[in-house]
Design goal:
This protein has 463 residues and is of the alpha+beta class. 57% of the residues lie in helices and 7% in strands. Strands 4-3-2-1-5 form a five-stranded antiparallel beta sheet, with helices on one face. Helix 8 packs parallel to helix 10 (267-277) and helix 14 packs parallel to helix 16. The longest helix is centred in the C-terminal third of the chain and has 28 residues, at 413-440. It starts with a helix and ends in a 23-residue tail after the last helix. The relative contact order is 0.05.
Amino acid sequence: MRYALVISLLLVSFPPPDRTVITRDGKIHEGTVTREGAEVVVVTARGTVRLPAVSVVADFVTWPEARRQCESRLAEATKLFEEASAKPERDATRRRELVVSLDICAETRDLLEILEKRAPAAERDSIAGLKGKLFQFMRLVRDAKGATALSDGPTEAPFEKVSIEELGLTAEVLPESAKAVEITGTLGQGQFSALADLESESAAARGTAARRLISPPAPFALSALAKALQVEKERDPMLLIAGALSQLDLGPRLKTNFAWAVADEDVARRYVVLGLARRIHTKGSCEFLGDCFRTKPPSDHRMRAAFSSAFRKLRPFSIDVLREIMMKAKDKELQVEAVRQLGMMRDWAALPSFKVALGGSREVMTAAFNAIEKTGGVAIPLVMEMLADGNDEIRRLARVLAQRITREPIDGPAELQKWYAQYRRHIEDDEKSFWKAQEEADFPVAHEELRIYDRKLPGPKDP
């Protein structure tokens, strides 16, 4: 009896910790969670919320627990994929299992995007790594689904087995001269013979050599292809060399075989290298892009857009890389370029960098102002801080930003806070839709988007 009393006292003194519940439509609830039949009940600070159990995609206390739940879902999708892959292509069950596997992946992707925005810095790398692994697996499932004979639906009737005798076919015996003969000579070098032609003076010969190395992929040719790309100036062979390289695992070789690319001044080759590096969702790849950016900053909007597209695809690694470049850069132009790229990320994690940049030179401050405006609703918490700043100029710029972002005549922090409380959910939903569309289109950035950085700081009479 005494032990039961002690346990009861402990339960009263230390109630269960709050849990975070995330539903399929992206809504987040925090509080005490219990299960009542087919419903999940969440007692929050604002009241009790009842949710259908089937609508809950995550229920966790700690961030590692949330990540493990995502890993478990990926493992479930992988098991379905493996079971489907073992079935014949014309098996209807194969397609259904691939579809379910892809659905689980899509749901896990949406969940990871929510977690990525809310996770502490210590967990972001792990979540980003899991996200990259998920994207690679989704491509594998899509490829298998597209290759399935039943991808457009089952055939009208199954194949009927018929014996050869029933077909009424006859086969004549082949003459002696047409029978198979044994080949005893060498088969030649195969793809290896293409390596020498990569150094040919003929652009057509170089292109043909690169084309031969595209399929099947030729890992043995990686160094030769990288050297060929370093000196290639003709468009067609350059694209074919890039195509051959895109089939290979370049991650471990970026900083060795492509070290020359960091300071390369050829515009076409820079576009190719950016295209190759952005395919590798790793911290090392992002650091390589950062080295290219730091050594040879972009000087026109088209090149800036190419970097922005790559950095967006490699979030959240790119935020840390760009922040470091901005903080350590001694060159003012490089600082400005880094702030511009941070603005193109539309990420709350970049807000502290903008706050620092507002205290820099006039050029850096201008870039930070435009970057905050480009970030949009995500930057509202920073604008609220600016409205309470002790510097008159910062407060004036904050009012302009508040009015441009909200399209309302906001004049102070209280008004902006009220507006943000009303529209915060809409902002989050818009950002979720934006990044989902970006991912589906492989993170495109039009060079026209960079024109916002051509603007000057608004004067006292400017709207």
